Amino acid sequence: DPCRSFHCKRGKVCHVDKQGKPSCICQDPAACPSTKDYEHVCGTDNKTYEGTCQLFGTKCQLEGTKMGRQLHLNYVGSCKYIPHCTDYEVDQFPLRMRDWLKNILMQYYERDLDTSGFLTEKQRSKVKKIYQNDKRLVAGNHTVELLLHDFEKNYHMYVYPVHWQFHQLDQYPVDRLLTHSELAPLRASLVPMEHCITRFFQECDGDQDKLIALKEWCHCFGIKE
């Protein structure tokens, strides 16, 4: 099968011509496999697609047009009303986000105690200190005041989770810059719960070059130079 080792980007599928030569053609959105409701996604055109196959197939068919350039995955789930993000909310956003990143790493650490493989040895030793220190914080929802106090008092605990998340996203290619596509997995999963995330990332891009450098990312999260 000539298509077996022939890679096509999202929205395209491998097609073999009469001479047996493989090439990439746009995925027919109507031919995408049926999905469950929880697999639906919302596009930046505010339309609900049955899944990412349908969304990226549609984007591929619009290639070369303004609509095609503007169509991206907005968030996971059917389209719904997302409230406007206020200045106050976007100011508080890094507090919640830093806490969330730290909690993800601690969950990985706990899982790693039972089944290794979630973290590397180097990551495990860094997260161990954060994990031990974190037991001071009250479990459950943390107030803004508590998060701010904890950030100021235990600043060093928050630096690694912020760096870790950047490098988890910086994959295609690894160049210390985050593109819209690299940010998409984080954005898409968080928009329904954190409606300020889109504005937050837009404002992180200080030079407006549509790329978020490591320096810009850290500055957004309040990490010192």
From TrEMBL:
Gene Ontology terms, MF aspect: calcium ion binding; collagen binding; extracellular matrix binding
Gene Ontology CC terms, in alphabetical order: extracellular space
Domain of life the protein comes from: Eukaryota
All residue ranges annotated as the Kazal-like domain in the record: 25-81
One protein family per Pfam: Kazal_1
Gene3D superfamilies the UniProt entry points to: 3.30.60.30, EF-hand (1.10.238.10)
Family according to the record: Belongs to the SPARC family.
Name the UniProt record assigns to this protein: SPRL1 protein
Organism expressing this protein natively: Calonectris borealis
Organismal lineage: Eukaryota, Metazoa, Chordata, Craniata, Vertebrata
Gene: Sparcl1
